[in-house]
Amino acid sequence: MAPKQSTTQDFIPIQEIRDGVIILKNGGMRAIILASSLNFALKSQDEQSSILMQFQNFVNSLDFSIQIFVQSKKLDIRPYIALLEDRYKEQTTELMKIQVREYIEFIKTFVESTNIMSKSFFVVIPYDPPIIGGKNPLSSMFGGKKSATDKTATADTQFQEYRSQLEQRVAVVEQGLVRCGVRAAELGTEEVVELFYKLFNPGETEKPIQIT
Question: Residues 48-59: what's their mean pLDDT?
Fold first, then answer.
């Protein structure tokens, strides 16, 4: 009998992504917030002290753990170059064409000689439903080999109840970040899927997730 071939999914702890909520195979739930950056070095000393104090108070006020994740990747300049090429074609004077062309070449040379990285900041917020009878309720509701007919309205109601607990934590974290001067937005299903796709496919150079 040939040994069973392992697939990538066997090593990913995610069971399902539903309504922006990550449901792990062990029944745990996770939400992800995208946070903006803050140019701390340009702040005055008083502003820096205030931000640090706000962040300290925010972290100390939490009664649950959070994970801060920083995604770094090389900046893809190709969309900007393509935009400049379009602008070059629109120019009607030879002088402007020369200037735009020189600028395009400058950008290309600068990027090739300098390792420019873009960074995205995420906060992962957990909620683990209470263990009932030695099992996590969501693990049995959304895991295993149950058919669609087995996922009853009761299971959906239970999910919404647990999601409401998770969203309360999300609101607390968002408010704490705003007090520190950081913009925050919870990722929806499509954004979460895109994030994990990029994590497991680092060669992709699609545009980064944006806060709207």
Answer: 93
